[in-house]
Amino acid sequence: MITRQAIISATDSPPATPAALGFSMPAEFAAHDACWMLWPQRPDNWRYGAKPAQAAFVAVARAIAESETVFVGVNDDQYENARHQLPAHIRVVELSSNDAWMRDVGPTFLTHPDGRLALVDWEFNAWGGLNGGLYFPWDKDRRIRSKIAEMLGAERFIAPLVMEGGAIHVDGEGTLITTEECLLNPNRNPKLSKAELERLLGDYLGVTRVIWLPRGCYLDETDGHVDNLCCFVAPGEVALTWTDDTSDPQHAISRQALNILEAARDAKGRRLTVHKLPMPGPLTIAESEASGVDRLSSSRPRKPGDRMAGSYVNFYIGNSAVVMPRLDPAHDDTARAILESLFTSRRVIAVDAREILLGGGNIHCITQQQPARRVPGHTT
């Protein structure tokens, strides 16, 4: 017997996707209204109760705030401490989290030609869930996107896809870069094929071309996030982490990525120009740095001698400034000069970022841009 409810269910069309409604993800180098960050505090990831990391986060927030409004989300028990350390013009809001990686636990913002702002709420499982994930639990992280949507009064699209913001970069003109190591990892979306993933990325971000790189940076604990390896710096132009040392495992990864990028065409049919950024180090964790981290079974251990996935590609593009990590005196100045040549209309600000790298990521990983709302009839 067919019930009326069965007839309704059978005839109901699925909800329209963001792309079908005209939304898309702008490039990071497009105009922003704000930047979102979170406050570090967990002692099993950040040494010495996260005090050195907090100082590094303050420096990043201060640098970005020269360019745009900065919001820092803080757990209640750290609110007064964060408010005391952060400059008055940086907005501190109570926004509970399990850790401080806003790029991955926060929303991916979308804009519409009519001026509306929306966001994508990806499923988050702490970079692999119980199969290689970096900590447990991640319940507070999963609520961050809905809370920000409420704060901004923005429409929220819930995506049927486990993903993190650091896994993607877009040019704002239909092209997306990602890695197979991350998105095709069985600890993310084991039932989805590459073609199905491309369709979902198109549906939720408005992209029409996906460029797949095989792997991310060597020993990147996020399973190879692209934002540590390669990023768009302009339409048709990308920056790629690079080493000429053929004995270093990173060389083969970067060489393979370079070959793919130079052979690819973007959504507009352009060939890509690839700018090489030198790899810092290699950098490893010192005994003194590892000894200050609490050892818990629910999080990733930090051991002396462990190599870190340091990269100058992990920078943030603000409205009038590019904030880059300072990681290695042997390469900092060269990397800065390259970025200054790529962003001639922006000031490049280098911030000491080793403390952030010790936690597993860097400046791009701890930030999330909120794009400027498009104004109908105006161009930027």
Give an account of the 3D structure.
It is an enzyme of class 3 (hydrolase). It holds the Pfam family PAD_porph. InterPro entries: Agmatine_deiminase, Peptidyl-Arg-deiminase_porph. Its EC number is 3.5.3.12. This protein has one domain (19-371): L-arginine/glycine Amidinotransferase, Chain A (5-stranded Propeller). The chain is 26% helix and 23% strand. The protein has helices at 4-11, 51-65, 79-85, 102-105, 139-142, 144-152, 180-183, 194-205, 249-263, 287-291, 332-342, 354-358; strands at residues 32-38, 69-74, 91-94, 108-111, 117-123, 155-162, 169-170, 175-179, 209-213, 230-234, 237-242, 273-278, 283-284, 307-308, 316-317, 321-326, 347-352, 368-371. Helix 2 (51-65) links the parallel strand 1 (32-38) and strand 2. The N and C termini lie far apart (58 Å).
